[in-house]
Write a structure and sequence with these properties.
The structure holds two protein chains of two kinds. Chain A is mainly alpha-helical. Chain A contains eleven helices and no strands. The radius of gyration of chain A is 20 Å and the shape is globular. Helix content of chain B is 70%, strand content 4%. Chain B is extended. Classes of the chains: A mainly alpha, B mainly alpha.
């Protein structure tokens, strides 16, 4: 742990801290749902540590409850997590020069929130220790907060209010992440195309509409970027 | 384990491990493989759009759809517009949560 790592850790932690509010409703809901599925506190926290993914946990619970075949549980979890392959590929250059077991831990800790909020600055930095700190501090914080809040959900399943629409805080957190990203025209195009596709395809099972929407958004952003640069080249040529 | 579960003990933990593998293999894929699995430069540039696309794809259905239908006088949409205005104007990261939930609760109270 050198200076650059510590500086990165401090900056990453405070960068991500406000956004971690978005975890509160998610973790509570996940805890309540696992209790609702009939898990003991030990089983619920076991799943929470082994899987550590709200979407995959909530998505596979109904299958586990009915005793669905293993391949179906595996396939559903894979479909819900396909987006992480894209995230993993996008953030991978920031782990250049990092030891293997640290990369394995970093992979386990990868979440939507930390990826979206931390990857742009990580990819822009040339210091590998700073980058690792900037990633690990918010990720470990996210992990600890997730475990504690889920435990509160598990233990308080019967007394938590359900009519406060607290789940909307998760959407607010996603919007707070989205606003600074869409400052360029191609990014805005990517977001609008993905959002519209997700709305149109919301009926598809297994969140396949979400995955299709991500691909459409990436394609649209890429095309918008090429179109913009071609236009610029045409302008300078004339 | 309660009686509502058809299987016992090891079955449940096997399900957790499989769901865990299905989570951590995608997450770790490129981070662990590192430079041995370099993506083509074009694909890497395209992937810069992944966060914006994923975030919008997660948020827009939640904000625009009520029971599977688009509805323009929906409290969540009003709250989302307020969140966007606040987040673009001010750097404060807590404010969108306060304003967003405030608008959501007021709109629900006024509309229903």
């Amino acid at each position: 742990m050198n200076d650059a790592f510590r500086r990165g850790a401090r900056e990453g932690f405070f960068h991500y801290l406000p956004l971690s509010i978005g975890l509160i409703p998610w973790a509570l809901v996940t805890g309540v749902a696992m209790r609702g599925a009939g898990f003991s506190v030990f089983e619920a926290m076991g799943m929470n540590i082994i899987v550590f993914a709200g979407t995959a946990q909530l998505g596979t619970l109904p299958l586990i409850v009915i005793g669905a075949p293993m391949w179906m549980i595996l396939a559903t979890a894979l479909a819900l997590n396909l987006r992480f392959v894209i995230f993993s590929a996008a953030i991978a250059p920031a782990f250049e020069g990092v030891s293997r077991w640290r990369r394995i831990i970093s992979g386990y800790l990868l979440t939507d929130g930390v990826f979206a909020s931390c990857s742009p600055r990580m990819l822009a930095s040339t210091d590998k220790d700073w980058r690792l700190g900037f990633y690990l501090a918010p990720s470990v914080w996210c992990w600890a907060l997730w475990q504690i809040l889920t435990l509160i959900g598990v233990l308080g399943a019967s007394v938590l209010p359900t009519n406060w629409s607290l789940d909307f805080m998760a959407s607010i957190a996603l919007m707070v992440l989205l606003v600074p990203i869409v400052s360029s025209r191609p990014m805005l195009v990517a977001a609008l195309a993905a959002g519209a596709t997700a709305v149109l395809l919301h009926d598809l099972p297994l969140k396949l509409g979400l995955i299709a929407a991500i691909f459409v958004g990436i394609g649209a952003g890429f095309l918008a970027e090429r179109w913009a640069t071609e236009n610029m080249n045409a302008d300078t040529a004339s | 384990m309660s009686d509502s579960l058809m299987h016992s003990g090891w079955w449940l933990w096997l399900a957790f491990v499989l769901a865990g593998l299905a989570t951590h293999i995608p997450r770790g894929s490129f981070i662990v493989a590192g430079s041995r699995a370099k993506l083509p430069a074009g694909l890497q540039r395209a992937l810069r759009y992944a966060p914006a696309a994923a975030l919008a794809a997660l948020v827009m259905p939640d904000v625009l759809l009520v029971g599977g239908e688009t509805q323009l006088t929906n409290p969540k949409l009003l709250a989302a517009i307020a969140v966007f205005i606040v987040a673009t104007r001010w750097q404060n990261a807590w404010l969108p949560f306060i304003v967003g939930m405030g608008v959501l609760w007021s709109a629900k109270y006024l509309i229903t």
